[in-house]
């Protein structure tokens, strides 16, 4: 079976667990080699690398703090040294909401979310665009945002602001990069059973309580998000750019019910 990503090379940030790990495996299954990025979980990154190799594709593991543009530059240099080119960038690494309300939200904590979720995405996009421009254009950028790029969450101003900003970065890039044939889209999940929701994974009663606001009455599995990422990374989505694809079990359509 011919894969939709045969011969492509993808860099996936935060591919040591959750959505990133599932996407790396799906990309490999569709024929792509993968640059596996991590910051803290080296064992998880190695597991991702093994999953890619199990599909008969190549993988290289790189460590970087994406909030540091020097480390991002080094990460891309290592990727190019390993594979010679990059065709797909998936910005998946990020930090969750702190839970602090704005009145108690320290500058340092707010800065962590903005530096990681927004600046990190910006640093990675900028370097990827430079590489693809030198290669004559074409390419795919997928930014993993959240339903909170649109809807607020009390105690999540740091996260919400960062994801909303990535939404506008994506839309700006879609206009700038269309002449180069580079598409840029957001993938915006709702609740997904990843380490971000570890408490719910560990406590079935808590999970059951949380999914009541979701019309489908369940959270997503990482592999479900990954399969949409495959579409956005493939030629099937060549006419899609500047869009946000929401996968939330109907959560956003449920807003306002019972008011």
Write the layout of secondary structure elements.
Blueprint: E1 9-12, H1 18-29, E2 33-38, H2 42-54, E3 59-63, H3 69-83, E4 88-91, H4 107-134, E5 139-144, H5 157-177, E6 182-189, H6 198-202, H7 204-210, H8 222-233, E7 244-247
Parallel strand pairs: 1-2, 1-4, 2-3, 4-5, 5-6, 6-7
Polypeptide structure, described:
The chain has one domain (9-246): Rossmann fold (3-Layer(aba) Sandwich), CATH 3.40.50.720. Helix 1 runs parallel beside helix 2 (42-54) and helix 1 packs across helix 8 (222-233). It is an alpha/beta fold and 259 residues long. The protein is globular and about 55 Å long. Strand 1, helix 1 and strand 2 form a beta-alpha-beta unit. The mean pLDDT is 94. It has helices spanning 18-29, 42-54, 69-83, 107-134, 157-177, 198-202, 204-210, 222-233, and strands at 9-12, 33-38, 59-63, 88-91, 139-144, 182-189, 244-247. A 7-stranded parallel sheet has the order 3-2-1-4-5-6-7, with helices on both faces.
Question: What's the gist of this structure?
Answer:
The chain has about 260 residues and is of the alpha/beta class. The chain has helices spanning about 20-30, 40-55, 70-85, 105-135, 155-175, 200, 205-210, 220-235, and strands spanning about 10, 35-40, 60-65, 90, 140-145, 180-190, 245. The protein has one domain: NAD(P)-binding Rossmann-like Domain (Rossmann fold, 3-Layer(aba) Sandwich).
């Amino acid at each position: 079976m011919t894969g939709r990503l045969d011969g492509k090379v993808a860099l996936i940030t935060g591919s040591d667990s959750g959505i990133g790990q599932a996407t790396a495996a799906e990309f490999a299954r569709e024929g792509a080699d993968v640059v596996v990025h991590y910051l803290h979980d080296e064992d998880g990154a190695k597991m991702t690398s093994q999953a890619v190799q199990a599909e008969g594709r190549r993988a290289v593991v790189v460590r970087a703090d994406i909030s540091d543009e020097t480390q991002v530059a080094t990460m891309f240099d290592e990727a190019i040294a390993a594979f010679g080119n990059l065709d797909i960038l998936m910005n998946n690494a990020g930090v969750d909401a702190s839970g602090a309300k704005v009145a108690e939200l320290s500058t340092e904590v707010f800065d962590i979310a903005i530096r990681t979720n927004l600046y990190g995405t910006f640093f990675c996009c900028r370097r990827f665009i430079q590489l693809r421009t030198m290669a004559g254009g074409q390419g795919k950028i997928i930014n993993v945002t959240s339903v909170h790029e649109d809807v607020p969450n009390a105690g999540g101003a740091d996260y919400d602001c960062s994801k909303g900003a990535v939404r506008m970065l994506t839309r700006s890039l879609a206009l700038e990069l269309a002449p180069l044939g580079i598409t840029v889209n957001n993938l915006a999940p709702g609740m997904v059973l990843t380490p971000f929701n570890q408490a719910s994974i560990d406590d079935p009663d808590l999970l059951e309580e949380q999914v009541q606001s979701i019309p489908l009455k369940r959270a997503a599995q990482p592999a479900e998000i990954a399969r949409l990422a495959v579409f956005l990374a493939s030629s099937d989505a060549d006419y899609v750019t500047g869009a946000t694809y929401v996968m939330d079990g109907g959560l956003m359509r449920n807003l306002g019910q019972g008011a």
